[in-house]
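for the writeup, i need someone to sanity check this before i put it in the appendix. the sequnce is what the collaborator sent (i think, or maybe the updated version? ugh). structure was predicted straight from it, no edits. if anything looks off just tell me and ill rerun, i have time this weekend
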Amino acid sequence: MNTSKPILYGGLLAISLACLLLSCKKDNQSSGEEIDFSNLTPAVTSKGTSTGSVYTQQVGAGGGRVQSPDGQIILDIPAGALGTNTTIGIQAITNEAPLGAGNGYRLTPEDVNFAKPITITMKYGADLQPGLCWIATQKSDGTWLGYRNTITDETAKTLSVQTDHFSDWVTGKLIDFRLAPQNALVKTKGQVQLYVNGFAKTKGTAKEELEDLVPLTPIYPKDADDEDLAPLPKIVDLSTSLEQLKAYRLDFKAWRLSPARGKLQSSGSKATYTAPDQVPTPNTVSVSVDIEATQANKTTKLILLSNITIVDKYYAKFTVNGVESVFSERDIVRLDGGFQPTGNMAVLYVSDNGELGITFTHTDQKTVTIAAERPQIGNLPFLTSAAPAGTVAIIYQKGQSTDGYTSVNDELLKDGNGCKSGKPSAGSLTLTEYKNENGAIVSGSFSGIIWNMGDVMACKNESVEISGEFIMPVNKQ
């Protein structure tokens, strides 16, 4: 059990509140206008945790077929792949891959080297689409490799690859099946940048390249001069830079605005929405994009959607496990003195060096605190145990409880006489408008799943699904 967790939580709370109220200072600032793909690094995650018992079957030199009891994965081992009788194991695990969706399995023994390639076939469900999904495997260092040559059988609804080794195997998406941001607030005459996210086309080792394996490398890069993850300084069209299956062609088709209130300009995988001069009725619009994955004469179509709310006043809300806490204009602290305490309060600070701090406090004693390093327009990941380079610290507390929920906590699982970490927290903050000036508007949204400390002795804790959106003025000290 990691005994440093209580100290880490206390430290994060102190740092977050200090940054919020005392204007923390740092010297490094990320800058630049173009994406340097040479700085991208593969995503690293924890290994999946088991969700069932291990199924085993003996296979000898003559080969054979091994199928999981649930029928979701099949291993076809040809004659000559094994030299001696070997116990083959299949265990269902959680899918921890970036953009992972669907099944995950641990295949053993992991040190086996097949003399001939074996075939792994995995079922895919309604959460995945042919041509837009693949099979991925995790390396010992926590990074992932996707198979460009994943074979899709749309009739059987299966994905297949050939390999000469065992490890953890999962199904996943090549691109996010959501527009970013999914939900946004924008003031009249303001703009929102929308884009499709995925993995960059990067190269692995010589052996990986030979097998058409690609590291799962998120589009958002690390800044060359800083170890922190930095958002894209400018949203650009990544149509030709997104990874895709070898047998498919990925196309970004029509972007649409409904109803036609405001303006939409699009280019490939990105678009910019400009709000009208006045708040329309109703004050929401939807932006969507059609994506097609084509193989020969077969085409899979996918529609991604984003909902945008147009306002001419300040506004904020957060949602915890489906329960909304809404802040009206009078609940939001601002320099013009319009704040009228009602028991609710939302305040946004930016330090001289651009450190962002936000606190939402609701009458039912629910508080959300956010602290972000070097914020820019775009997506900033939560600081978690799985992504220590994340730039956003988030804390949720209810009432006077000291057992807050925070992005650095993991799920607690029983492990013999102690505990081990299960699923890490996950999430991000997306800024659609940002300027480091007194009274300037900052707008954006956040979402994720974060864990509390819980009962460490019993190795039991809880998570909350948290999200929010805001359009608030900057208050500088």
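Residues 1-34, 221-233 have pLDDT under 50 and may be disordered. The first strand starts at residue 55 and ends at 59.
thx in advance!!
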